[in-house]
Design a protein that fits this description.
Two copies of one chain form a homodimer. Chain A has helices at residues 12-30, 42-49, 55-63, 86-96, 120-123, 158-174, 189-205, 216-225, 237-251, 289-301, 306-321, 338-347, and strands spanning 2-8, 35-38, 66-71, 101-106, 128-133, 143-146, 149-157, 178-183, 210-215, 232-235, 260-262, 268-270. Chain A is α/β, with parallel strands linked by helices and 350 residues long. Chain A folds into two domains: 1-102 and 265-350, 3-Layer(aba) Sandwich (Isopropylmalate Dehydrogenase); 117-251, Isopropylmalate Dehydrogenase, CATH 3.40.718. Chain A has a ten-stranded mixed beta sheet, sandwiched between helices. In chain A, strands 6-7 form a two-stranded antiparallel sheet. In chain A, β1 (2-8), α1 (12-30) and β2 (35-38) form a beta-alpha-beta unit. In chain A, α2 packs across α4 (86-96), α8 (216-225) packs parallel to α9 (237-251) and α10 packs antiparallel against α11 (306-321). The longest helix of chain A has 19 residues, at 12-30. The first copy, chain A, is globular. At the A-B interface, β6, β7, α7, α8 and α9 of A face β6, β7, α7, α8 and α9 of B. The structure holds 3-isopropylmalic acid (2 copies). One 3-isopropylmalic acid sits between chains A (73, 87, 90-91, 241, 273) and B (186-187, 217).
Chain lengths: 350, 350
């Protein structure tokens, strides 16, 4: 399999290196051949080429079986007046590959509950996946800037809502059969469209799935007060961005959470939900787990290697059980670094 | 003083009745004269007049010293295809009175920490106010609906951002001098405008206030992991809607949280941040505290009666200390109803 690796900025290179190491180990354990092709994106690409998503990177991603990304962005490139921003590279890549469904599973690990701000008794048994629409909404609508005003257009077509709800319905069917659609239908026209389409798609195509609608503000509460009740949550781009960062607190740290961005083909983009964390970049202390679990999602969703994916997830779980904690999840006491955390996963592999 | 009361829907009438009782008690204790004028809004207004905000209601609000509102909305009126929705009444009122700054204080009460999903040690000392922009953004931009698509326009002018940031700066100056401005400047044009204007207004007019910028997704995490670090948080309409519902979980229940919506004049609109809670309406079990604390904010911000406001807030605090808990904050055991909870506050008044 041909895997494009986009280390990006900040801690991106450190955590993708860890994930690639794990993929190498999987390849040799199971007798696969993975070829890795590293390309530039984000700030690193801007520095070298002036563009956040060079054509050569996009071309490589288009022909790859899967793409593994670290993170993009950082204060060096975040002058609001800058002509090119690292984030544009990531957004353009999602759009160009039509990766409309961003899966963000949240399953707090028992050993890491101490790191969560949420009371542990609420977290037992939490196992949810947010399916965030990733190529539409206010992220991609027309933006305008005048001297004394600015605007962003939030737009959704029926087709855009259908396909992401369908993907979420399929996932719900494979899981506990419960789907929660999140919108702001009491205020937004796009949300009213969203609600109508979600209702129709589930009624027509997923009669075995139960659908519940939640307003985004209520959801921001219920995610904390009764997280166990959710199975699959589907929502539009901006709400998904906010709710998944919030949901990461259930797991204790963003450093633990992977994501898969999928389109209609097999190829997908896999990345931690955390950012480039410029404050800790280069110090060897970043948590590699989110990137390693993203690699597991890559094995599962793009390469169809379910056993191998299970094996990586189990190794991570065992490493956490054994207390292999980086600083983000270690309360007091000594935390280990990125290399040691990666080694702990490798040790438990198979 | 002339006070318009808009009970609205669901539990609205129950909780505004409690707040009015408390205001009556304040009036007689301090020798004030408050005249209450009840008017229709929301679903109740739709049922009677066909409109969510009848002209007579708006006229009354325009000439009042302050408006006390319960809540609007409910399943009866929430058919997505309905021509008029209760929420439109509230949105139209906010807009017509130019109440651009919505203050939502969050200060968890020690006695109610058990009700919060957040670990208690993170909550000690939390005392923040969200200043939510209330008359702009995606709530009020042009909405369009075609057969196969929909759109909502998010717009902000420099003046709209300036005035709300200024209000937040004034508040920060009276408090701990720390202001956090929340946006999504790495994606949205309106957020880049927001960030520029916030930076300039604080630099020019509030050199004594420290300003920090946060992306909305990060804020959704930090609000949970380090709530103590925030003093005043200012943000646009939609982000404020989501973040304040999330922040309500710090206090344990929305039933405890008041809000004040202010414009340039003294008149303001005061309402609990909770909704109409149709599931518990009419059962006499709603928590009246949010409405009572909204009345305290009314005394402070519209009537300039700071001592009286302090007195109400203290009475609420003492009632909670004494364990006067409605069902939303009572873990196990017997909860009291709306009347008993109101009586507990009245008992502690002065
Ligand atoms: C970096 C940024 C553009 C991105 C987003 O908002 O989608 C990030 O926050 C994410 O969630 O992947
Ligand atoms: C009822 C609804 C329109 C309203 C809003 O979104 O502003 C409510 O959620 C609030 O926060 O006051």
């Amino acid at each position: 399999a041909e895997i494009v690796v986009l280390p990006g900025d900040g801690i991106g290179p450190e955590v993708t290196a860890a994930a690639v190491e794990v993929l190498h180990a999987v390849a040799s354990a199971y007798g696969h051949r993975f070829n890795f092709h590293e390309h530039l994106i984000g700030g690193a690409a801007i520095d070298t080429t002036g563009e956040a998503l060079p054509q050569s990177t996009l071309d490589a991603c288009r022909t790859a079986d899967a793409v593994l990304l670290g993170a993009v962005g950082g204060p060096r490139w975040s002058d609001p007046k800058a002509a090119v921003r690292p984030e544009q590279g990531l957004l353009a890549l999602r759009k160009a590959l039509a990766l409309y469904a961003n899966l963000r599973p949240v399953k707090p690990h028992p050993a890491a509950l101490g790191a969560s701000p949420i009371k542990p008794h609420l977290l037992n048994g939490v196992d949810l996946v947010v399916v965030r629409e990733l190529t539409g909404g206010i992220y991609f609508g027309r933006k305008q800037r005048a001297s004394d005003s600015a605007s962003d257009l939030c737009e959704y077509s029926v087709g855009e809502v259908e396909r992401v709800v369908r993907r979420a319905g399929q996932l719900a069917r494979q899981r506990r059969g419960h789907l929660t659609s999140v919108d702001k239908a009491n205020v937004l026209e796009t949300s009213r469209l969203w609600r109508e389409v979600a209702t129709r798609v589930v009624a027509d195509e997923f009669p075995d799935v139960t659908l519940e609608h939640q307003l985004v503000d209520s959801m921001a509460m219920h995610l904390l007060s009764r997280p166990r009740e959710y199975d699959v949550i589907v929502t539009e781009n901006m709400f998904g961005d906010i709710l998944t960062d919030e949901a990461s607190m259930l797991a204790g740290s963003m450093g633990l959470l992977p994501s898969a961005s999928l389109g209609d083909g097999k190829a997908g983009l896999y990345e931690p939900i955390h950012g480039s964390a410029p404050d800790i970049a280069g110090r060897g202390i970043a948590n590699p787990v989110a990137a390693i679990l993203s690699a597991a999602m890559l094995l599962r969703h793009s390469l169809g290697l379910d056993d191998e994916a299970d094996c990586v997830e189990q190794a991570v779980s065992q490493a956490l059980d054994a207390g292999a904690f980086t600083a983000d999840i270690q309360g007091g006491g000594a935390a280990i670094g990125t290399r040691a955390a990666t080694a702990a996963v490798l040790e438990n592999l198979q």
